[in-house]
Amino acid sequence: MYFEIISEITDIEVIARGRGIRDLARVRKKYGPGSWRKVKGRATVRMEDGSIHHAEIHWYEAHGIGRKRFKIKRTLE
Q1: For the chain, what is the HEC assignment?
Q2: Are 41 and 9 in contact (CB under 8 A)?
Q3: First and final CA of the chain: distance in angstroms?
Q4: What total number of domains does the chain contain?
Q5: What is the pTM of this model?
Q6: CB 35, CB 63: distance < 8 Å
Q7: Residue 74: beta bridge partners?
Q8: Residue 21's closest CA among 56, 55, 57, 61?
């Protein structure tokens, strides 16, 4: 599902880091070694059909690599 983040991400919280990430091997293989963290936050997103929702999103991030693999976990309306 395609979506675009159209607001600032708020309420950012680390939910796993290092070996606590289930997909760590896949993330390292695709994006390279780093101090990876799985993070969640809230933002306003525009969906593929043009509708706008407030959603909880999850992603992976590492210092020097950035934020990767954004995913909507749930809408908050």
Answers
A1: CCEEECCCCEEEEEEEEHHHCCCHHHHHHHHCCCCCEEEEEEEEEEECCCCEEEEEEEEEEECCCEEEEEEEEEECC
A2: yes
A3: 19
A4: 1
A5: 0.89
A6: yes
A7: 56
A8: 61
Task: Tokens 């390279």: give the residue.
Answer: 32
Per-residue pLDDT of 26-62, as tens digits, reads 999 999 999 999 999 999 999 999 999 999 999 999 9
Q: Please classify residue 22 by burial: count the beta carbons closer than 10 Å to its beta carbon, then call 0-12 exposed, 13-18 middle and 19+ buried.
A: exposed
The token pair that represents 19 in the structure block? 């070996």
Q: Which residues contact 24 (CB under 8 A, 6 or more apart)?
A: 18, 36
Query: Who's near 29: CB < 8 A, 6+ residues apart?
Result: none
